[in-house]
């Protein structure tokens, strides 16, 4: 009889533990994923003990009331359901893992890893710039260059929307974009059909170079984007279009779009950047065609080799000094990037050609180069792992050299402008106290073939979320 009482007491204690654990889990919401799993493991242990006791009790003594067993079974079921509810319904933010996807920056790629519904991310950057040497009309400045919000929505596993809304220079000013502007940098729908071929449509980033698609401040050296990827390859260059993206093999990816064409009326001696439509009532009498491929060989981990090309007419059914011309425009680039342990190496070269550049020059009132080119190479190395073995911080000195000329060849009847032929030498430091925050310092030395250019010293910060 004493044995039976002991077993009844054991069952009662276990039932009480089950009830108390349920009430505790309901009142004490875990604050981290680790806390949640500790509670789940403790509850699962209690379930196992209760089931073991239930198996023993009927076999040891058939006089145990079946009602008590049923009550215990019910409490066990309730506890099991509570554990499952915690596993499936309790939402606890996990540490964000930033990873680039489909050619976009890591923060811009958050929607691709979302389960379903809304995804929010963004980045910001600000800097102080001091002009050094022959300043001319230039002044030192402090600027909140960009504050960006990414908003994405995953409708289903196969259809999602992604976008970037950018606020520049902290204010919109009085109709003067130099004081600031608000822009939709991209806004597109992705339709996932097959790893080899998926569809994207909307306001798309042109898949050229490094910076145009991945322009978050943590992922390029220096406070300013490379000049080659501003003047030769416009940044940020986006157009309304539709196209395909995917992988030919696991190591070979591609992107190809048909977009509205450039507008040659916006071309200048500084390049083609002002000819972009940008999705703002863009002229679409002519179309542009752009394609990109990237290859990552298995034999060299961290290496990416690729290139892209853009071709299309830019005349847009307009007259240039009384004539309608196509203004066929071409732009090509090749790039290489290698990331190995703390080392980062990048190099990129680009060349462009503009037909009817003489008529465009006559129409715009300034020399528009019939050819342009630019290239740069840079290297940086994270030195902190050499000093602190397990550090998660990052400190990289870097060096970059750029060579560009927006009027590499003047059109017939026009003189070259040596002031557009630049060499830029840049050195700096990048420090990341945590993986999504960066502090930057750099110095740029500008050397023009003709005419003085001021150097600059830059201090800045950037972040992603």
Top keywords for this entry?
465 residues, Porin, 16-stranded antiparallel beta barrel, two-stranded antiparallel sheet, 42% strand, disordered N terminus
Structure description:
The protein has 465 residues and is α+β, with helices and mostly antiparallel strands. Helix 1 packs antiparallel against helix 2 and helix 1 (2-27) packs parallel to helix 3. It has 7 helices and 18 strands. It has helices at residues 2-27, 33-60, 66-89, 110-113, 228-232, 357-364, 384-387; strands at 117-132, 141-154, 159-168, 182-194, 197-205, 238-249, 252-260, 287-295, 303-313, 319-320, 323-324, 328-340, 343-354, 371-381, 394-409, 421-434, 437-448, 455-464. The protein folds into 2 domains: 2-89; 107-464, Porin (Beta Barrel), CATH 2.40.160. A hairpin with a 4-residue loop joins strand 2 (141-154) and strand 3. The longest helix is centred in the first third of the chain and has 28 residues, at 33-60. 21% of the residues lie in helices and 42% in strands. The strands form 2 sheets. A 16-stranded antiparallel barrel has the order 1-2-3-4-5-6-7-8-9-12-13-14-15-16-17-18. Strands 10-11 form a two-stranded antiparallel ribbon. The N and C termini lie far apart (66 Å).
